[in-house]
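Course assignment 3, question 2. Fill in each field.
Student: A.L.
Task: Predict the tertiary structure for the chain below.
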Amino acid sequence: MENGSIRYQKIDLTFSVKPYVHPPRSRPKLTPPTDPGTGKAWASCPTNTTEDVDAAVQSSHKAFQSYKLLNPRARAKLLLKWNDLITDSRHDLATILVYETGKPLNEAYGEMDYALGFTWWFAGEAERIQGTVSVPAAPNRRVITIKQPIGVAVALVPWNFPVAMVLRKAGAALAAGCTLIVKPSPETPLSCLALAHLAAQAGFPPGVFNVLTTDLANTPSLSETLCKHALVKKVTFTGSTAVGKIVARHCAEGLKKVTLELGGNCPFLVFDDADLQQALDALMLLKWRHAGQACITANRVYVQSGVIAKFTQMLADATKKLKLGHGSENGTTMGPVTTPRGISKAMTQVSDAVDLGARVVLGGEPIRDLPGYFFSPTILTDMKPNMLLSREETFAPVCALYSFSTEAEAVRAANDTSMGLASYFFTKDVDRTWRLLENLEAGMVGMNTGNSSAAESPFGGIKESGYGKESGKDVAVAEYLVTKTGTLTVAGHY
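Answer field:
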């Protein structure tokens, strides 16, 4: 790492880096990221402010003038080289993820493998960008379309999957021929800086991949300045719906192209005829991964009345086997939440549900005898639509179970939300499968699976879960392209 050091011990890591911007700028103030598993600062990185935005954008704009001319094969080779270097650094990056996010080491390895799918995939997408030629109704004419990179792009990245989110956005942008400025979350800046270091080693020219780290206090103003800069032509944001609306307003002033991947509140439906073990295995991964801190996690679990008692017991028995601890400890299967705000929100939602009649099957409170930000895996039943857990996205290890009788009732409940990111269902009825695919209001639907995200499939929601697509064939790269139309009159046609 550039100007950095890591000591691989159980808890104690030290890390100090400079900002990854070309040309480099020196920021005297340093931000100390906190290890969620201990609640202690373990590193430091620069606190950039609005004063640093213009230099970063100018750097990326200058780099864009030459990078956009690089042919697709050359861009693909750079992405593949970057992919190889990230693969070689898989253990180092996974270790950083453990201390940044709190997730167990095995989950960090899982994020790395998932993330590497994007660099590999978008290397191929670089050479699949194509225009069209068509014959219009007017005589002696041809209509030609070409695809060109839109310009400098900005990626505002969350803390829950910091490597995967950077590579999903950067892979598409760099494949398209855009340059990119990443503003990582204040909680997880070091993994992004490490990726920038590897991008430079891979051969990406200075300014093609810039990073602006900052602290929580400066995040709103720095992000707004990036969004409103005249030379920024594209913004991609992953985060809450509330903040996504603010980003959209900022970008509306300059009519910038925007991709928003926002909140989930995702339903998970289990029918009487489902393979309950299959549904349980999927829910255990989907719900408890990263302590429930994923936009596509199962937020509301609807189980048909004939099997809810059995399924609840199965879920409780499996959940009791989870081992909580620091992500670096052997055997840990669930780590802490990443910020203390996650504990506060979970306590508020659980208390509200209990006050309104929910029953606590398991957990329900913070874990006091562990350092860091730990909340016990919690299962609630007898849930009702008027509870906060029913109406808000939950970024914590809290699983809410609802009973339903009919398919129509389940669909109404699942769609009773302003969000529409992902939905999941488990059934062996093929007719019901088709009906649910068409009737569930979500951008992504998992059918007898809880894993619907991959580099090859378009990722994105509907309703207040945002717009635009990340990953998938054609659609993700298209977010970073403009289509130019040429009309040619052909003289002497025969």
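Instructor remarks: Residues 30-262+466-483 form a domain with the Aldehyde Dehydrogenase; Chain A, domain 1 fold (CATH 3.40.605.10). The CA atoms of residues 218 and 341 lie 18 Å apart.
Grade: pending
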